[in-house]
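Subject: Sanity check before I submit

Could someone independently write out the structure tokens for this chain? I want to compare against mine line by line before I put it in a report. The sequence has 690 residues.
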Amino acid sequence: IGTHAPAVPPGPRAAGAGRFDVAEHGEALGALALAAVLTAVSFMAGGGTALGANTVVQVGLVVIGASVLLALLVFSTRAPGWGATSLLLFAALAALTYASLAWSVNPGNSWLEANRTLSYLAAFAAAGGLARLFPGGWRALVAAVALCTTTVAAYALLVKVFPATLDPRDPLGRLNAPLGYWNAIGLMSAMGLPACLWLGASPLSPRWVRTLGPPAMAILASALLMSVSRGALAIAVVGLLIWFALVPLRLRGVAVLGLGAAGAAAVSGWALPSHALSDDNVALAARTSAGHTFGLVAVLAVLATLGAGLLLAVRMEGRPLRPDIRRRVGATLLVLLALVPVAGVGALAASSRGLTGEVSHIWTTLTNPNGGVGNQPNRLLTLSNTRTRYWSEGLTVGEHHLLLGAGAGGFAVAYQRYSHSQFPISHAHNYLIETFADLGLVGVAISLALMVAWMAAAGRAVAVERVRGSIWRLRAGPAGGRLDERGGLITLVVVVAIFGLHSLTDWNWFIPGTAVLALVCAGWLAGRGPLATPVARAAEPRHPARAPAVGMAIVLALALVLAAAWGIAQPLRSADADAAAIGALTRGQSGTALTDARSAVSDDPLALDPLLDLSSIYTARGQPEAARAELLDAVRLEPENPVPWQTLGGYDLQRGQPGLALAELDRALSLDPWSIDIPPLIQTAQAQLG
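---
Independent answer below. Compare away.
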């Protein structure tokens, strides 16, 4: 498994070598900068629901995207528009998301989702632009992915070590912080595995990087297992299989993976059976005590993996294995891998149900819409889930809003009309199904076209060629001796594939930490162009004074950035004003509350809550007609949302208007048939009517 390249002895120290050379360390600086941005997005945005933090992240991504665009205007050369089709289709998806405000069942939420999509478009475009400006920076991007994912996974484990300090209010046994969702922690860890695997196995990585590969994989795999995310674990296995099938570093990769897996087995093997570490609602004192012991175990395991990684890195620099030994080891590994499904089939055949009966039972369990499973570690061995119910309700919403959907983010409101469950759902847990529900067939068509265009661009970047018909393969011997770069780009493809596959079972598109990481990798691949012919920067920058078109483009770009930032910030301004109004009303300052509430409605005229709160303020001020007028505005704003109808009906019921209230409450119940709050109000209205 040693490298074929002999070690190069260090040369004499040049004059001034003690100074820090930015050009020499540019790759490392780029990796640190990218990792810092990606990590900041993960920690600041969290689960994607905190409006203030997400507004900052979205504005930041738009500014970064605009900055890269300005750099392209000044420094780019005339070259083919690699990735332009993908970028235009992504822009079309963002435009459709904004357009859906016109027909959305929840336009306030649609505005938020449109802003999110715009920021994702900026991240994708920025990565594509960086690939054109710095085509040799692919190694820095792979390193940034590894750094970001390992940092997030390490912090998630650290919360288990110091729960009282880092997250005392989290009662869950599964890893949750910093992304606010255990499956997102599992997905982030899975996305980091191929990046650390490539860095640890590549013969061109420095020794210290290869040494850190196994302990980084141990941290990622430990977080993956302790997140108890079945989908992330299964897709991580699929992603690693794709990596080993396409990257010619298999024996090295197996060695790195084996060491990382051994370290993860020690860490998770200690934590998962522990009641204090893996069960929900455990007393904080017990969690803290068990966490300190777990931290000691984790540190020892990582240190042992680090030492083994150093030995492996040194061995990789020695004489390579003889070809016959390599073939025998490879054949043995393939046989062992092939025996895994054979053993699985044998176990099914030997069960009490038999092979066909066991397969039928598995299928029934997987497709049962009423299935469920707890949060304990034994869920890794169960198949029961609730995904089919989410998917069924998403498809039903799409069928009733076939062409354009219920509006971006509208599923959370529209599904109530067709649901048979009182359990609230925010997402359909499948990107395509949620897109069908929110944006209809048009949104699905644009998304599929974007996927096809991106796959073509990524295939061009890694030198994929057509053999015949629909059969494709990696072109042998990439021009220019770029075999190492191809391995790095394939690693980025695998990272994107892991995210895309997981998006078919969960709602990670709405979690910026995972989504932006995948989109940056995807954007880089789209903008990279053919492997043998990268696009470079211009020898001399364009000066706006000598190129009026460039100057006009810069002015236009700055104007668009300001407009986008203003649009992204408005919902936050409205929410802050609304919160101030509620606080003023609580203190008895109805005049101040009224002013703040009107500002909230003005800042975001599509938001529902400011209208409802403004109605409450008018009621407190003894202005019933004005209060009811605000509720009527709320109903007109979201006529297919049961909340404003229920609020209006309750208000009329309190005012002694049971006839009006009954009609309004009946409408609310038709939009949410399984509500437990509306029927008692209807019964009260009927009783008052005699």
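---
OP: Matches mine. For the report I'm noting this point. DSSP finds 26 helices and two strands in the chain.
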